[in-house]
Amino acid sequence: MFKKYLIPNAQNLPEGTAFTVEAEKYSFLVTKQQGRIFAYENLCPHQNKPLNWSTDSVIDDEGDYLKCHHHGALFSITDGTCITGPCQGRHLRKATVGMEKGDCYLLLP
Ligand code: FES
């Protein structure tokens, strides 16, 4: 059984941007790529720090990857794999995202 947490206004999130949602004791980064909403725990597998410690965007300049500002790791938006950086090959923890009646939710076990 999943617990649902509303992701406010997710459908209107512009491509290439991200915001955080708090659910239970976790922080999640929510972003959109090619019309799909993705959510990952905001915790870099390199040193277990939040990716967004600075005010800079957690999306790289081209809008293709999530970026950890601590040591520059880049992560695939679609599956959370680190494609370059000190934790290459490791993954962000992906959260399940569901839709219901036009609203977008984080679904946590
Ligand atoms: S803590 Fe994210 S790259 Fe080092």
Automatic annotation (TrEMBL):
SUPFAM superfamilies (UniProt xref): ISP domain (SSF50022)
Keywords of the record: 2Fe-2S, Iron, Iron-sulfur, Metal-binding
Keyword Metal-binding in annotation: yes
Pfam family for this entry, one: Rieske
UniProt domain Rieske: residue ranges: 4-106
PROSITE patterns reported in the protein's UniProt record: RIESKE (PS51296)
Entry's transmembrane regions: none
InterPro entries from the UniProt entry: Rieske_2Fe-2S (IPR017941), Rieske_2Fe-2S_sf (IPR036922)
Keyword Metal-binding among UniProt keywords: yes
PANTHER family listed in its UniProt record: PTHR40261, RIESKE DOMAIN-CONTAINING PROTEIN (PTHR40261:SF1)
Name the UniProt record assigns to this protein: Rieske (2Fe-2S) protein
Organism: Marinomonas vulgaris
